[in-house]
Amino acid sequence: MEMNYDMKIVKYFIITSLIWALVGMTVGLILAAQLYWPVLNFDSEYFQFGRLRPLHTSGVIFGFVVNILMGTSLYIVQRTSHTALFNKSLAWMVYWGWQLVLVLALITLPLGFTTSKEYAELEWPIDILIAVVWVMYGVLFFGTIGKRKVKHIFVANWFFGGFIIVIAMIFIANNLEIPVNWTKSYSVYAGTQDAIVQWWWGHNAVGFLLTAGIIGMNYYFIPKASERPIYSYRLSVIHFWGLVGFYTWAGTHHLVYSSVPDWLQNLGIIMSLLLWLPSWGGAFNSLMTLLSNKEKLKHDYVMLFFLSAVIYYALATFEGPLLAIRWFNMIAHNTEWIVGHVHSAALGWVAMSGFAVFYYFIPRLWGHTEMWSRRLVKWHFWFAHIGIAIYAVALWIAGIGQGYMWLKQDPDGSLVYSFVDSMNFVAPWMLVRFIGGAFFVSGVVLMIYNLYRTLSLPIQVPLTDGSDELSSNAAEEGEIYVK
Questions:
Q1: Is 368 annotated as a binding residue?
Q2: Which region holds residue 352: left if phi is over 0, alpha if psi is between -120 and 50, else beta?
Q3: Pairing of β 177-181 and β 184-187
Q4: Which residues contact 455 (CB under 8 A, 6 or more apart)?
Q5: 341 is in an annotated binding site
Q6: Torsion of CA 453, 456, 461, 465, to 10 degrees
Q7: Is 182 a residue whose pLDDT tops 80?
Q8: How would you class 84 by CB atoms within 10 Å of its CB: exposed for 0-12, middle for 13-18, buried for 19 or more?
Q9: CA R_g for the chain
Q10: Across the strands, what pairs with 187?
Q11: Least buried of 43, 187, 317, 378, by fewest C-beta within 10 Å?
Q12: What kind and span of H or E run contains 187?
């Protein structure tokens, strides 16, 4: 039976995500340049690193990632529930409300209006707007689940539902604050309590926005791109409950060797180590799904983007628990190594997943079956890989050197190296980091040009809101992709 699915709102979210991917990553490239050439701050209070850095993180996380997750979740929940959106007017309120949040961030952060909290820098009026829009998004998503025409709830919707609930809970709790005026507030927490609550939010923003949400998206699109069912549907459910059970406790590994009680530090370390199990189980599940169609994998760069993302996910979830261990943390924490770890995950796992979805999803949303240029997709793939490798390796080397130099002592207990010595050691690696970032952002530019040319072509497969299907296989979700 033909359903009147709402594809227009999905298109808006996906194209907006694509725009913010370029904006957020370009700001990141500017920041990388400023670290090596400080003159690029231009002596401007609005264009210096401290003002632009939260704009970069907010643009990538809340612009690129949240928009693609909102768009794909609203598509997937319709398709797998065999029903239209709960309320189309509410969907547009969510879209425009979220874009207002991003515009306000673009204005206020360079002006210096900030709470200074990691991934939660926006001031209290914008925080309230975020909470209201997020609750509307939750009502829209779960309302659609509630009116589904099938009994089964596809596993992707489990991950989307989990990320919606957890982000609402931890964002509101972390951003409880006392306003002073329209542009300044102070947290209701202080000292150690503030740090604990902040990293409960900060680490789980990574765990549920950049991990659970992306996993939900991939559990739908990887089988689609592979033209095969999920390798183990049971394992995907175990993956979900493992992340929900362990991830929310792991945030205090950011506070090892701090004034946070030892038992709470140890809890974060233990939970971080336990995360290996569901993380690698999920990575194995996606990997085997892709490998189940080896013939297509040999030449399909969308599948190769997904494969790369899964491998980077496995690497990042191996390195992260290691960095939480005390002796490892002593060397690595607060060094460039951590920045390398974060970006190998963000660029390798999150961005590569997003690129794969852009390449697979955008042409089909507009009625095309092929990209304008497969060669440019191939070029983008290698630009991205070269960029990540250069970027991450440079920061790993810089971080290891920093950690060693900060800890090295003479027999009398004095430090062998000064802080300036460590900065001089790191400097050339900042240049290498910029080069890696330039490769990566150049690939994004190639992708956007390729997608633009693709959408400029005559429509090959006329689609309507009611008949959109992303696979040549006409079987409904629930038959082929949920085994």
A1: no
A2: alpha
A3: antiparallel
A4: 362, 363, 366, 368
A5: yes
A6: 110
A7: yes
A8: middle
A9: 22
A10: 177
A11: 43
A12: strand 184-187
Q: How far is CA 167 from CA 10, 87, 137, 170, 272, in A?
A: 21, 22, 12, 5, 19
253 in a labelled binding site: yes
C-alpha triplet 124, 127, 129: angle, nearest 5° = 115
Instruction: Single out the residue of 90, 241, 115 nearest to residue 179, CA to CA.
Output: 115
pLDDT per position as a tens digit, 361-400: 999 999 998 899 999 999 999 999 999 999 999 999 999 9
CATH superfamily of 8-455: Cytochrome c oxidase-like, subunit I domain (1.20.210.10)
Alpha carbon distances (Å) from 362 to 20, 66, 103: 15, 17, 24
- Cβ pair 385, 477 in contact under 8 A: no
Say which amino acid occupies 158: W
Count, residues in the chain: 483
Q: What are phi and psi of 409, to 5 degrees?
A: -125, 150
Which helix or strand (DSSP H or E) is residue 180 part of? strand 177-181
What percentage of residues in the chain have a pLDDT greater than 90? 93
* Mean pLDDT for the stretch of residues 79-105: 97
Range 116-142 burial, b when 16+ CB lie within 10 A, else e: ebbbbbbbbebbebbeebbebbbbbbb
Element (H, E) at 374: helix 374-407
Residue type, 358: F
Phi, psi of 179 (to 5 degrees): -70, 140
Establish whether 333 is an annotated binding residue.
no
Give residue-wise pLDDT tens across range 296-322. Answer: 999 999 999 999 999 999 999 999 999
Q: pLDDT tens across 32-86, in order?
A: 999 999 999 999 999 999 999 999 999 999 999 999 999 999 999 999 999 999 9
